[in-house]
Amino acid sequence: MALDKMDENDWKYHGEGNKSLVVSHVQHSRVLRLLKYPSEDAENTQRTTEQAFQHILNIVEYNRNVMKPLLGEKYVHSGEVVKLPLDFVRQLSLKVQQERPELRCDKVMDTFSGCGLCLPNLTHLSPCHFGDHRPPLCVEIKVVTLLILICGIMLRNPRCNVLGGLTLLTPPKCGFLPFSRHVTKECKRKVCRFCMHQHFKLANGKWNRLSRYCPLDLFSGSKQRMFVAIKHLLEEPQNNLKIFKGGELIYSCKDDAKQQPDLNELVQHLWPYFHHSNGLYNGHQSSKAVFNEFIQVICGALLGSGDSSRSGEPRKVQLAESRSVCEASPLHRELLRSGNHGLPKDSVLAKILQVQMLDNLDIEGVYPLYKRVEQYLEEFPKERNRLQVDGPYDEGFLEKVKTCPSEDDGSIEYAVGKVLQYRVAMTAKDCSIMITFAPCGEDEKLQANLEIQPPKPRFTYSVSILDLDPKPYDSIPHQYKLDSKIVNYYLRSTTSAQD
Ligand code: ATP
Ligand code: MG
Ligand code: ZN
Ligand code: MG
């Protein structure tokens, strides 16, 4: 990609989140991720080129030096910062404007700095995964927050910390420490944050239907519970599920949140991938079979070891039962209780879960430590850099995250370590998983049949984790307030519903 000869016609709108807008190259398997600013104060908040460059560089370094080692080399793509011609960026911004969903237009794309992040297009499969004529399918799942209190899990043995690896293999019988003692509201021990947040979002008009998806079902490792979780995501994708075919978005929440996305349309896209030898597409029965197989492929990828060439590591990461069941999940109690099978240690879900569990004090335990850090920095402002509260994101940062003392010895190191662990866990609660798969080519299918394989259609797939930005140090007070708002709202709305 010659950066001096950029042409906006080579790029098209691909998608956006709250912080960035993404365009994809029409030929090469590349995307550009550009920053966004609130439109009402675009003038005031426009950063200098230097600041924007540093911001994106921070993202790259955080991905490379912190998230990659924690989540695994194969899942994380750190990307590179690029300086783009301003003319190109302005033309591009005009070009994509009409494609943008209305609900995202409260922010504008950064056209001032010319800085962007260049990444591989994860909705494509790399050429070494040769497929057949059917374009790859890609499912993006925004992970979101887990049960806050699963995070109480740490062994009494202080040498076994979460990152030590072995801790999580311990069967639930072993002596776990009690849930974070800092938690003040009992419901946080029973209902996951996502399910509570649903009530809050409904009340604020963000969505007008409750999602039945519960992340604890997805992370249970039980095929039955995972199946139902993904089915619920398909029924009500909100902003937690997107499906791409050949790099094009074919299924997501509608711009008009009142409208439900069309599952019939989706099944039309999917059935050429999942129909059986005799199968002509005919109505309800087949669409159910298509969805079943589709969901099974997704579950397989989520429990596998990152790509189809290796089989999953059999050792399991398992949560104590009481911490892996959310009372708000619509699943039948029996199924919930019996369905806690643990996750294969190498799987993308286990990797993300381990990092989420770095938040083992809960925001209620972290907030006082944040205040301790603030007070210390007020006295010794020069210490800010050494303590790396907001970067730089280098090996030293990762070291602080990994070696934080397990007990509060009153030190500033402990407070900083816990704050950094909390920030890293927040990233892992807000990331997305991309599962991209395509049917194997005919040759490969023949080869595969020589091995002992189930007689199912075989897919080649690849799994990645994206949207791994550092969460700002000074967002902790905001998180603290938000947490109590969500919990209080949940308590009020559920108790009044029972009256
Ligand atoms: P959020 O509001 O979730 O924090 P964000 O503003 O940080 O989002 P991203 O999630 O990184 O932005 O990107 C927005 C969307 O662009 C993603 O949901 C995904 O669909 C798409 N996208 C981002 N990176 C890639 C990539 N490397 N390949 C393909 N698609 C991508
Ligand atoms: Mg995102
Ligand atoms: Zn839940
Ligand atoms: Mg993000």
Fold and architecture overview:
This protein has 16 helices and 13 strands. With 499 residues, it is of the alpha+beta class. The protein folds into 3 domains: 3-120, 2-Layer Sandwich (Phosphorylase Kinase, domain 1), CATH 3.30.200; 137-357 and 431-466, no CATH class; 362-428 and 470-498, no CATH class. A hairpin with a 3-residue loop joins strand 1 and strand 2 (20-25). Helix 6 (223-235) packs across helix 8 (283-303), helix 7 (263-274) packs across helix 8 and helix 11 (362-379) packs antiparallel against helix 16 (476-498). The longest helix is centred in the first third of the chain and has 23 residues, at 49-71. The radius of gyration is 23 Å and the shape is globular. Mean pLDDT is 84; it is low at 147-178. It binds adenosine-5'-triphosphate, magnesium ion (2 copies) and zinc ion. Residues 14-20, 22, 31, 33, 119-123, 140, 242, 430, 432, 466-467, 469 line the site of adenosine-5'-triphosphate.
What proportion of the residues form beta strands (DSSP E)?
A: 5-15%
Q: What is the distance, rounded to the nearest whole angstrom, between the alpha carbons of the first and last residues?
A: 63 Å
Major sheet description: 6 strands, antiparallel
Number of domains in the coordinates? Answer: 3
Oligomer type: single chain
Derived from helix and strand composition plus strand pairing, the structural class reads alpha+beta
Helix content: 25-40%
H/E order of the elements? EEEHHEHEEEHHHEEHHEHEHHHHHEHEH
Could you tell me which ligands this complex binds, including any ions or cofactors?
adenosine-5'-triphosphate, magnesium ion, zinc ion
What global shape is seen? globular
Rg from Cα: 23 Å
Counting DSSP H or I runs of 4 or more residues, the number of helices is 16
Low-confidence stretches: 147-178
Number of strands: 13
Averaging pLDDT over every residue, what do you get? 84
